[in-house]
Amino acid sequence: MPSVTSILKRLVLGRPFRSDKLGETLLPKRLALPIFASDPLYSVTYATQEILLILTLGGLTFLHLAPWVALAVVVLLTVVVLSYRQVVQAYPSGGGSYEVASRNLGRPAGLVVAGALLVDYILTVAVSVAAGVDNIISAIPELNPYRVAINLGFIVFLTAMNLRGVRESGRTFAIPTYAFVVGVLIMIVVGLARTLGGNPPVAESAALDIHPEQTGLTGLALAFLVLRAFSSGCTALTGAEAISNGVPAFRTPKGLNAARTMLAMGALSVTMFTGITALALISQVHFAENPCDLIGFPGNCETDAQRTVIAQVAAAVFGGDHTVFFYYLQAAAALILILAANTAFNGFPLLGSILAQDRFLPRQLHTRGDRLNFSNGIILLAAIAGLLIYAFDGSATRLIQLYIVGVFTSFTLCQAGMVRHWNRELATADTPAERRRIHRARVINAFGACFTGVVLVVVLITKFAHGAYLVVIAIPVLYGLMRAIHRHYDRVREELLPDADSSVPPSRVHALVLTSTLHKPTLRAIAFARATRPDTLTAITVNVDDADTHALRRQWEQHHVKAPLKVLESPYREITRPLVRYVKNLRRESPRDVVCVYIPEYVVGHWWENLLHNQSALRLKTRLLFEPGVMVVSVPWQLRSSARRVQQRLITSPGDVRRGIPQPPPPQRTTSE
Amino acid sequence: MPSVTSILKRLVLGRPFRSDKLGETLLPKRLALPIFASDPLYSVTYATQEILLILTLGGLTFLHLAPWVALAVVVLLTVVVLSYRQVVQAYPSGGGSYEVASRNLGRPAGLVVAGALLVDYILTVAVSVAAGVDNIISAIPELNPYRVAINLGFIVFLTAMNLRGVRESGRTFAIPTYAFVVGVLIMIVVGLARTLGGNPPVAESAALDIHPEQTGLTGLALAFLVLRAFSSGCTALTGAEAISNGVPAFRTPKGLNAARTMLAMGALSVTMFTGITALALISQVHFAENPCDLIGFPGNCETDAQRTVIAQVAAAVFGGDHTVFFYYLQAAAALILILAANTAFNGFPLLGSILAQDRFLPRQLHTRGDRLNFSNGIILLAAIAGLLIYAFDGSATRLIQLYIVGVFTSFTLCQAGMVRHWNRELATADTPAERRRIHRARVINAFGACFTGVVLVVVLITKFAHGAYLVVIAIPVLYGLMRAIHRHYDRVREELLPDADSSVPPSRVHALVLTSTLHKPTLRAIAFARATRPDTLTAITVNVDDADTHALRRQWEQHHVKAPLKVLESPYREITRPLVRYVKNLRRESPRDVVCVYIPEYVVGHWWENLLHNQSALRLKTRLLFEPGVMVVSVPWQLRSSARRVQQRLITSPGDVRRGIPQPPPPQRTTSE
């Protein structure tokens, strides 16, 4: 029932926002940071674990390479953050990598980036939620049978939060993000202080040896292992560009504020990643993908999981896993992981809206809902992420393999685009200071492009067989889809461009009133049709049953109806075909004429009442729309039950819910030309 | 895609039939018998088993009561057949029990009968198919996991057969029915001949003793057991009245032909039932519901089932279960059981059509499909029966408990109605011979009414807890539903009766053309609207985005459009609400005016193209229909892709499929008044 759904909608979404309130939902930096950066700020903690996990495939021997791998990730992170500071200032419209690539490298490059970003946003939601639920299930194993349901529940929750609007979700999500960052920083300080004081933390797994899955690695194989560790560590960079896509949500000066937020995020990320990795190595966390590779693992390695690296470090630093601070950090970590998905809920609809404006995605993604957000984009994202989680049984381990390829595709193309951008800027720069600034910026972006390009190749090679191939399929498919949509819109727009012929009036109007029985709706339709003064007016009926038709003719005579009744024969008891033929014939005789088909309809108040009345009018209307030179006129007759329904609707409509009682419509504010 | 579906439809259904071919699908008696009587002809064999099964709950002691129980069933069967011979002749319109009860006992009684019959038709399909599949699964136990799927498969098959039309399905179904009847008759003759010759058949279970579930039965308890056996034996009567509901499908003289077919069915049923019961008792078939009650049962009584009574008798008569004749009879039995469901596929849609004509069921059930059958009724029956089978896991044993209550409800009310019918006839009868005939008929029907009424009470008491209570709920629910539907139609009809006011023309017509951008569809809509010479003509747009609205105004000036553009403000970015308010205001100023809203639409050729265009026009149209005094005019603009679709449709439409190539429409056969 519409009344219930609209009440529910208001309960979930709150009141609708007026368009002129758009300015008020802009974000201050202290809220923009947690909204756009919860994903990158969490993923640094995950990155350490991923690096250790790959290196220990070769046993403990290669753990000494971890600092070098981590250093490479830090350098990469720094380069990317510096590169993107240039992007947000040069392109503050929120197009981010997509806009940079399109403008500087052309449409195709832009669309590849767009496809990569869309894929990665979806994966961010799926992976973050799945990993968060993993954490919860590690704590409460009884929930394991409901894994997928819990995942989907969180997605529904996030969708509802985001449908309410960006600012409120910002406030909600700021707390756990800051709580988590502060917690990690305290842990790092305490841990390093203990180390300097000669009492370094010792992890619970420090004493465990690891059974290598790959032995005697040398030369190329070793290099491949290190590269795989590096590309796994690159998860630290996921979401790094969310800020560049969210610039329009910042307060003015948008570009500068975004660049500063970017820098804050970069500084925090590097600090946290370095600190956690250092502490993990100091406290000798020995982490294996498969617990059965751990020699001396306490518990059943088949069913029990090893605790996450961040959990082990926290336990080691704070002295055991029963301290308040340990629980605090674990709770914040679990929470931020679910909320990291929110980054994508901000980025995806914005990008979708930009792509829709450029006519690469359906127009609906460009429309703001009544809370001023892009509701269709939010719902689309939630639906696809939900499907992915369902298809992958909510397994974060399997979903994460699809990740990162998209991230680095867009990094590389974006930086390459920036190089071109600076080349063009250089041509118009006047002062030497300006030229120096541009030269410096170009070097940063050129280095960024090369570096991320190499990483993209590394990631593709090392992760292809582990699932990345799916993304390698998905991006071109999206690319083709967006091109096709664009072509469609272009074709339609071109077809519909007004020309001299479009305003030529028809020479004559033939009114046909569709009749099955003689009742009020029919008589009203005839009266209305007469009021439009057509050149000809005919009531028309299809003879499906001789007795009925005969009765109709008799009634017609009795009531002296002021229109001739024409009977179309229909040997196969169809309604649509004989009518369409009749209309075609009329038009064939004089193609400049217009046929106006009046269809009397009754409007019922309850959905089930529709079941009791034939739907042939609807089918007929749909079919007639395919005929050129035909107008279809619905002449409704409101049954009494429908009046009640309209009243119900009014009572529960947003404008009136706030006032609590049905109101007469306010005077119309209209401006006429 | 419509093209594929219409091809599929033609493949399944065959060519459409012209209305004037209706006469040709009438049935000769030799086809009417198997079509309407496959259910009662099979159920007699089942009845014997049901009787034995209940009696042996008390051990072998009470088997001597079996002939008396069987005799009661034979008497009942005779009475019912004789009673219904009167019905088909007095009411040859096919209304059967429903018509008799309505006309003579009033609407409520008629509706109770109708509800009972509808329920029993559905159960006939469910039980027969389920029992048939049981037989198949007894032969091939590997199919057991697919029980429900096989059941549903048969229902789909029967549905398709019946959608093709009644005559062809008659021919198909006649063969197994006759094969089965002939087989049983041969078996009875051979079996009795062997008995007379001093070499009576001996069943495989003759040597088995039965462990009684209920011991020391005397007095009331014994009476209850006998009554339960009797009411189980009454399954022999299910479907007996199908002929009375199918009279219109007979050739003329319909009543007489139906009465003769009824008599043939009765004679065959009594012969078969008596013969099978006699042979079962002679060959000492010992049958228990639970094989573990059989002392000395060969095989595992937990998993293996005892063979059906008819199978045991056949094996005994023909000397073992490897004779050709044994297999022949088993195959025919399995086949006829599935096809017995067909009785209901003929009866249900006919009854549904009659009820729809009397406005107790939705009108759609009254329309004949393009094969001249009541396709909607067939599909409805199949759907509900499928649901029942799904809900009961395809278990015939559980479904059969719901049966029989409905049958005897309609028997009783129908016979009582016939008594009244004769009373009325008596008042107008002239000759003494006529009066004698009526007196005789009245005695038969009065006896029938009492007898079946008593049986109804017995069945209700003995089967209530075993599932019959569900039917006791379902019949009143159906009754209420039919009353509600009738009230709805009555209310609507009364509301729509033409009165003096209906033909009054509106005083003025205001044309509003809905505009979002200035393209060909908009211009055409304006040109068309101008052609209807409205009193006022305004192009109207809703300001959702200031920039878009501004652009629209500029275009408007550039193109010198011949209509003023009015902009409605919409602070909450809605389209529908401001427009509806504007229309309401127009109408408030002068309520006798009519507002004509022109909506330019583009018509696309592919369903997916709809996803790329906003659906707000559709929502708007639906909402505007609720406003009094508003006409909604769709002015379609056919995109090029839509033209292709219409062509495709034409190619695959029924009329043209037969000729193989698309044809220009033939000259229209129309008659005008």
Describe the structure.
- 2 copies of one chain form a homodimer.
- With 673 residues, chain A is of the alpha/beta class.
- The first copy, chain A, contains 24 helices and 8 strands.
- The first copy, chain A, has a 5-stranded parallel β-sheet, sandwiched between helices. In chain A, strands 1-2 form a two-stranded antiparallel sheet.
- In chain A, strand 3, helix 18 and strand 4 form a beta-alpha-beta unit.
- In chain A, helix 2 packs across helix 12.
- The longest helix of chain A is centred in the middle third of the chain and has 34 residues.
- Chains A and B meet through helix 17, helix 18, strand 5, helix 20 and strand 6 of A and helix 17, helix 18, helix 19, strand 5 and helix 20 of B.
In short:
The structure is a homodimer of 673-residue chains. Chain A has 673 residues and is of the alpha/beta class.
Key traits:
disordered C terminus, five-stranded parallel sheet, homodimer, alpha/beta, 24 helices, two-stranded antiparallel ribbon, 8 strands, 673 residues
